Every structure is written in C-alpha cells, then in structure tokens.
Amino acid sequence: MDLVNHLEGRLLFAVPKKGRLLQASLNLLEGADIQFKRENRLDIALVKNLPIALVFLPAADIPTFVGEGRVDLGITGYDQVQEHDAGVRALARARRMSNEWDPTKAASGKPQGCETVMDLGFGSCRLQVQVPAKGEYAQSKDLIGKNIGTSFVHLTHEYFARLEMEQEGATDPARVEGRKLRTKIIELSGSVEAACALGVADGIVDLVESGETMKAAGLKAIDTVVQTSAILIKSKAPSNPGLVDLIASRLRGVITAQRYVLCQYNVPRAKLAEATKITPGKRAATVTSLDEEGWVAVSAMVEKKRIAPVMDELVNVGAEDILVLDIHNTRSS
C-alpha cells in the first residue's frame, strides 16, 4: 500500500522486464539521467530525480498497458505494437460479428491506443516466415492449409488471411472479417524454432535477429512479415504531457550522441566549401576564423560509422589538425 501511495502524481513509464530489449533500455535510461534503484523481485521502481515510476512489464504487454492508458510511456518492440493492434482489430471484428459492438461505448471515455514517439535505434530484427531448409516449401503460399507455429498469432492470422484471399483472387478486405482460415495457427509461447523438427508445425512465424538460431534448427526464411526495432510509445492521453516531452527530448539526445561524433579540423578558407560538403553537420557546420590569415576552424557532427572515410576525404582537400571527439549527450532537432 505504501508503494501505491508513492505512485500518486508520478508519470508511469513501462520498461521491458526481461529479454533482448532490457539491457539496452536500461542503458538508455541511464544516459538520460533517469535515476532509480530497482529492488529485488519488485517490478516498480521510483525515479529519484523526476516524478516518474518505472514499471517493469513483459514487452508483449506494454502496448496493452499504454494503449489502455494504464501507463503513460513505454519501451517495446514495433512487432509487439503491431501484434497488439492486430489483436484489437480481431476483437473488434469478433464483436461486430456477434452484434456486441457498440460504437457509442467505443467512442466514449479516455482515448484508446498508443502513439509511436520515436525509433530508439536498437533491437533490430525481423518477424519472418521460416520453413525446414530441406523441405518442400519454397513460398509462403505453399503453407496455406498447413500448420503454422507462432507466438504472434494475430499478425500471423492476418498474414495468412491475405495470402488466402490472394489465392482466391479476392480484393475486398472486408472478406477477411469472419472468415475461417484454412491455415491452422498454433500458438506457442517459447522455443518456436523447434516446432517443425518436433512435428508440431509445417512452418513458423518468429523473430529473427542474426538467423543463427534458425539455421541451427534447420530452418530457412521465405518471407518477412514485419521489420522491427525498439520504439518509444505513449498513451493518447498521458497524465503529464510536458514530462513526456522532456523524457522524449532526453532520450533523443542520448540516441543522437550514440550515433554521432564531433569532428573538428582546420582548413584553408579557399577549401572551406569543399570541406563542408564532406562535413555538412546536422544543420550546418560551425566555422570560426583562426589567428592565422586564410585559415578557419570547422566543427561538425558526423555519423560515427562514417568517420574514417570522412577523415580521409578531409585530408585530401587540405584539412589539418583533425580531431574526433565523443558526444556524451546532446539536444538537437
């Protein structure tokens, strides 16, 4: 009860409690100076320097909590948001078919759903259709009418519904509603890659990062359903919009700092135009005059992954004293 009282007036921020997104999320919060201590086995942590409470939840549940306005902000995968939205569409279709749908209730009260604030730049992977590498299936349409194992049941249902419609030559999306799939979707909560080898499924739909796990399981990809990465989402009616914007600004600054370095160099003024074509900066390069006649100093943000060839090009146009500095944080558009 004491902890519940401490949540009063705090913005609730959902963070993945485990899995591939957890550590990168914690690193991002640390870079944004969101200070907290998570006690053992507690899924709520109070932030010390801001009126925020972190709520640690399964990544798959975060879109639901944000979408229903139970928490204000969340970090999760784009795939999880898409799966949640597909589930909402499926539920709405089922209610309409059973005459339980009431548009007046749906339109009243707190706005439902979540909005994407930004891509966080980590956790990139693909939700793919995978089949046995030495099997008979070469295209996704070959799996129509077969057994498909997945933990993404709603996205998989929509994917195969579209395939079945295409096979039938149908073009009206409304025909998806209420139709019974010939393809059987089998919900699995873990070790999806083993489903084919164990005879549970003919193919699977699962997340793939490097592809090594799937290759080891004797599988190959035949299609990509969704390209995904970690995203920041917010409620459509957050309790403190100003604080949401502050957090987003801080996180954006950390992400920018991770992607860029500051490149500083001296160059003859006659070569300045050529040099700033190489280092245009995010908005524009910063140029200042040197005490030495005919020379200027230039500072510009450069993508970290491009810095080596950029330095080579600067040398070729006559730049000297080239320095590369790490950026720990920033605020920029």
UniProtKB/TrEMBL annotation:
The keyword Electron transport does not apply. The keyword Coiled coil does not apply. Residues 59-252 form the ATP phosphoribosyltransferase catalytic domain. Residues 257-329 form the Histidine biosynthesis HisG C-terminal domain. Its main location: cytoplasm. GO terms for molecular function: ATP binding; ATP phosphoribosyltransferase activity; magnesium ion binding. It is found in: Cytoplasm. Its EC number is 2.4.2.17. Pathway: Amino-acid biosynthesis; L-histidine biosynthesis; L-histidine from 5-phospho-alpha-D-ribose 1-diphosphate: step 1/9. GO terms for biological process: L-histidine biosynthetic process. It catalyses: 1-(5-phospho-beta-D-ribosyl)-ATP + diphosphate = 5-phospho-alpha-D-ribose 1-diphosphate + ATP. GO terms for cellular component: cytoplasm. Pfam families: HisG, HisG_C. It comes from the Eukaryota. InterPro entries: ATP-PRT_HisG_long, ATP_PRibTrfase_cat, ATP_PRibTrfase_CS, ATP_PRibTrfase_HisG, HisG_C, N-reg_PII-like_a/b, N-reg_PII/ATP_PRibTrfase_C. Keywords: Amino-acid biosynthesis, ATP-binding, Cytoplasm, Glycosyltransferase, Histidine biosynthesis, Nucleotide-binding, Transferase. HAMAP family: HisG_Long. PANTHER family: ATP PHOSPHORIBOSYLTRANSFERASE (PTHR21403:SF8), ATP PHOSPHORIBOSYLTRANSFERASE ATP-PRTASE (PTHR21403). NCBIfam families: hisG, HisG_C-term. Belongs to the ATP phosphoribosyltransferase family. This is ATP phosphoribosyltransferase. It comes from Parathielavia appendiculata.
